[in-house]
């Protein structure tokens, strides 16, 4: 008998489980809108041309070796990543007040930041939006933080509950950590306006709360890298401290390469260098040092003007295709006279639309139309194409009528 005979089967991950169910469905019309990964009009995964070119350059460079990276990762990559999110003229970078460490994509960056906070920060409570990306609760809880939520989404308006958000953060204990989606909030697609960001910033600073940005979609939301970084830059511009977890999964299509960065903006260069020394103690016993390939691709692209420009064009094309899918779906529902207000489909931003469909309607659409999505009614716009929009619109129409 196995010594593990008592191990109980764990449930499938709610997001990745959607794909498992999709793969089992033999129907030729099946459609997977569960995964948060970009697909082309033909429904295929996309490797950016600029990534292929950078990889070619790396392969052809015989001086490149496969030695270990330092604990904090590739130095060039770290510097360029901080510049990308904070802006090349950032006073925080110029003042050496930012420490950046290469981590295992967005998830790893969040986890390393959380582990550091749980060891070195006096306040153990982190506020995350309700709802949020499902992994947030688990990441922060396992790092030893206490997770609480703040109101974010208003199901009635299918927009931001700014009043509830401000009230909940007002009653948070001084010093509490606040997780903020830098742009393209997942799963709702609802972001604060710049005015609302300013209100949030003032409240966070006046209560000495600590902002922790999750930036998983820079450039992917609006098509502009600078625009999608505005929220973060507002908080760094006031001279205060903050954490930023960056992912290159979406905006460079490097999902499986696991490339990301954690930046901690500090009050002084001295603090930043001491913080970095402690980050190394977090990372070393966890995975020793990060992988070299993905970070080399990113650094190659970010440091070369031509490759960088080429990247921004390809990134914009991905963002634009998603925006086009929003318009097409909205138009298709209007054409069918589907009851209800569907304008949130074009108002929401980023990879996902929070449709407002309930679990029962989702189950119906999966059963009758072979359309797969998370049970909260979130659909990945990147998984749609002009060809599949009518099928989805038929399904939504049938589900609500
Ligand atoms: N944060 C959010 C909000 C996300 O949507 C994702 C990706 N689904 C991540 C972080 C992290 O993704 P990754 O670890 O693949 O970079």
TrEMBL record:
Protein name in UniProt: Aspartate aminotransferase
GO cellular component: mitochondrion
Signal sequence range: none
GO molecular function: L-aspartate:2-oxoglutarate aminotransferase activity; pyridoxal phosphate binding
Keyword Disulfide bond: no
The enzyme's E.C. designation: 2.6.1.1
UniProt KW Amino-acid biosynthesis keyword: no
Other information: In eukaryotes there are cytoplasmic, mitochondrial and chloroplastic isozymes.
One Gene Ontology biological process: amino acid metabolic process
PANTHER family named among the record's database cross-references: ASPARTATE AMINOTRANSFERASE, ASPARTATE AMINOTRANSFERASE 3, CHLOROPLASTIC
Originating organism: Lactuca virosa
Cofactor: pyridoxal 5'-phosphate
Keywords attached to this entry: Aminotransferase, Pyridoxal phosphate, Transferase
């Amino acid at each position: 008998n196995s010594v593990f005979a008592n191990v109980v089967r764990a449930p499938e991950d709610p997001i990745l489980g959607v794909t498992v169910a999709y793969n089992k469905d033999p129907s030729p019309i099946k459609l997977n809108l569960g995964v948060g990964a970009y697909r082309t009009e033909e429904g295929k995964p996309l490797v950016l041309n600029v990534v292929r070119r950078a990889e070619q350059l790396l392969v052809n460079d015989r001086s490149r070796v496969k030695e270990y990276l330092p604990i904090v990762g590739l130095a060039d990559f770290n510097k360029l990543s901080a510049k990308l999110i904070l802006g090349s003229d950032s006073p925080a970078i110029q003042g050496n007040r930012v420490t950046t460490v290469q981590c295992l994509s967005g998830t790893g960056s969040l986890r390393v930041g959380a582990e550091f906070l749980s060891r070195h920060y006096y306040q153990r409570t982190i506020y995350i939006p309700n709802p949020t990306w499902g992994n947030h609760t688990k990441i922060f809880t396992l790092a030893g933080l206490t997770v609480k939520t703040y109101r974010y989404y208003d199901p009635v308006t299918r927009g931001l509950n700014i009043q509830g958000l401000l009230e909940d953060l007002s009653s948070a204990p001084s010093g509490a950590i606040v997780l903020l989606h830098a742009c393209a909030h997942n799963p709702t697609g609802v972001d604060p306006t710049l005015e609302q960001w300013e209100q949030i910033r003032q409240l966070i600073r006046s209560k000495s709360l600590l902002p922790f940005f999750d930036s998983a979609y820079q450039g992917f939301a609006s098509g502009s890298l600078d625009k999608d970084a505005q929220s973060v830059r507002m908080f760094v511009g006031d001279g205060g401290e903050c954490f930023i977890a960056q992912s290159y999964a979406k905006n460079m299509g490097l999902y499986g390469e696991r490339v990301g960065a954690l930046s901690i903006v500090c009050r002084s260069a001295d603090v930043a260098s001491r913080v970095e020394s402690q980050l190394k103690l977090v990372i070393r016993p966890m995975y020793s040092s990060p992988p070299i390939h993905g970070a080399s691709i990113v650094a190659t692209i970010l440091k070369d003007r031509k490759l960088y420009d080429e990247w921004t064009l390809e990134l914009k094309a991905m963002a634009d295709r998603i925006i086009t899918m929003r318009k097409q779906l909205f138009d298709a529902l209007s054409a069918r006279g589907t009851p209800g207000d569907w304008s949130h489909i074009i108002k929401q931003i980023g990879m996902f639309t929070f449709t407002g469909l309930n679990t029962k309607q989702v189950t119906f659409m999966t059963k009758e139309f072979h359309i797969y999505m998370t049970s909260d009614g979130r659909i990945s716009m990147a998984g749609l194409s002009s060809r599949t929009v009518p099928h989805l619109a038929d399904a939504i129409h049938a589900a609500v009528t």
